[in-house]
């Protein structure tokens, strides 16, 4: 009887040990995992040194958005669905920079034009945390972007606009584009009409010729043309007055004189978001347009359900006034 008990106890111990740890797995220490991304399980154990068909079933106490070293518990399993837990250390690092997308690599404007450096920026995003907002703090080192520009719209020349962006973990990205300011065409001077005084051409020094050898009593008098016409110099025609230039209510000349001053003329205004009255929702700067669209996506269920993203759009009227609209994208 005693032998039977010993046998059963040994069998039970073998059964428990065999079921709980019947496969071999060789874990790796100090694996480096990318911030915010789904972990690469192949970095957690050595497949060559482990049994076949080993996979990771679960990672306990792991935070992909916590930088630095973490001690975690990994649950491994095999093809027979047996499990085994191992404790190991991993390190989370953020190695990806922000992404800056520009609409154009080079812009050309004319002296006196309004210029918004942010209007040429399509987006500034972090691959994990999404949109990065513009800041006026040019000393920031985390979570924002700022613009530096030497553009002088009053002076013709070539200038540079630079965008510097940081993500929440301090990764830095830079991008730039060129701005060419062209000299404003000079208006041609209006030529005033020239008045010319007609001149008279006389023969024989302005006196009549005595054809008949008249007596001494005859006197010299200015000659008279008996044909009834005078021999006069030609008079130049005065130039027609230059028509007055059309001026819009804001003081600017229209780009196309044949169109109304308030007609939309430039930019993708046809696709800009419009209010219930059919009017484009306008903003003076791209930043204000961006902030408005962001709030609409967050707080307006109708817009959030219909569109997946948006862009700010520079647009202009025929009177040379410039604005920014928002185009929502499905």
Question: What would your notes on this structure say?
Answer:
Among the domains are: 19-93, Immunoglobulin-like, CATH 2.60.40; 99-182, Immunoglobulin-like, CATH 2.60.40.10; 264-329, no CATH class. It is of the alpha+beta class. Strand 13 (309-317) and strand 14 form a beta hairpin. The chain is built from three helices and 14 strands. The chain has helices at 2-20, 286-299, 301-306; strands at residues 31-34, 55-60, 68-77, 83-93, 99-102, 106-110, 121-126, 130-131, 144-149, 157-166, 172-182, 264-266, 309-317, 322-329. The longest helix has 19 residues, at 2-20. The strands form four sheets. It has a four-stranded mixed sheet, with no helix packed on it. Strands 6-11-10-9 form a four-stranded mixed sheet, with no helix packed on it. 12% of the residues lie in helices and 29% in strands. The radius of gyration is 44 Å and the shape is elongated.
Keywords:
alpha+beta; Immunoglobulin-like; 4-stranded mixed sheet
Q: Round the mean pLDDT to the nearest integer and report it.
A: 82
The strands making up the biggest β-sheet line up spatially as 1-4-3-2
Count the E strands: 14
What is the makeup of the main sheet?
4 strands, mixed
Question: What is the string of SSEs from the N terminus onward?
Answer: HEEEEEEEEEEEEHHEE
> Whole-number radius of gyration?
44 Å
The CATH superfamily of the domain at 99-182 bears the name Immunoglobulins
- The second-level CATH architecture of the domain at 99-182 is Sandwich
The 3D shape can be described as: elongated
Helix content: 10-25%
**Please, how many helices?**
3
Could you tell me the CATH topology label of the domain at 99-182. Answer: Immunoglobulin-like
- End-to-end CA span: 79 Å
- Unreliable runs: 13-20, 197-224, 226-231
Structural class: alpha+beta
Strand percentage lies at 25-35%
Main CATH class of the domain at 99-182:
Mainly Beta
């Amino acid at each position: 009887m005693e032998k039977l008990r010993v046998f059963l106890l040994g069998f039970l111990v073998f059964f428990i040990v065999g079921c709980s740890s019947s496969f071999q797995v060789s874990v790796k220490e100090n694996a480096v995992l990318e911030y915010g991304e789904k972990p690469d399980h192949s970095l957690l154990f050595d497949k060559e040194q482990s049994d076949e068909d080993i996979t990771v079933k679960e990672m306990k106490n792991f935070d992909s958005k916590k930088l630095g070293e973490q001690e975690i518990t990994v649950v491994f399993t095999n093809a027979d669905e047996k499990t085994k837990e191992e404790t190991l250390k991993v390190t989370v690092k953020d190695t990806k920079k922000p992404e800056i997308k520009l609409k154009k690599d080079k812009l050309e404007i004319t002296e006196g034009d309004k210029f918004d450096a942010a209007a040429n920026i399509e987006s500034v995003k972090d691959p994990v945390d999404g949109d990065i907002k513009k800041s006026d703090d040019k000393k920031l080192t985390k979570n924002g972007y700022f613009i530096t520009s030497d553009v002088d719209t009053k002076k013709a020349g070539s200038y540079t606009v630079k965008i510097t962006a940081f993500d929440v973990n301090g990764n830095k990205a830079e991008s730039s584009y060129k701005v060419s300011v062209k000299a404003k065409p000079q208006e041609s001077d209006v030529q005033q009409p020239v008045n010319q005084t007609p001149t008279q051409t006389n023969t024989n020094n302005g006196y009549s010729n005595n054809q008949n050898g008249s007596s001494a009593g005859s006197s010299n008098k200015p000659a008279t043309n008996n044909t009834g016409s005078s021999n006069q110099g030609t008079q130049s025609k005065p130039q027609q007055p230059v028509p007055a230039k059309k001026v819009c209510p804001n003081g600017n000349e229209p780009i196309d004189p044949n169109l109304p001053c308030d007609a939309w003329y430039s930019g993708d205004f046809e696709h800009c978001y419009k209010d219930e009255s059919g009017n484009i929702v306008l903003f003076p700067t791209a930043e204000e347009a961006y902030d408005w669209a962001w709030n609409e996506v967050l707080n307006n269920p109708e817009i959030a359900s219909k569109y997946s993203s948006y862009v700010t759009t520079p647009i202009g009227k025929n009177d040379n006034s410039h604005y920014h609209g928002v185009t929502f994208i499905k």
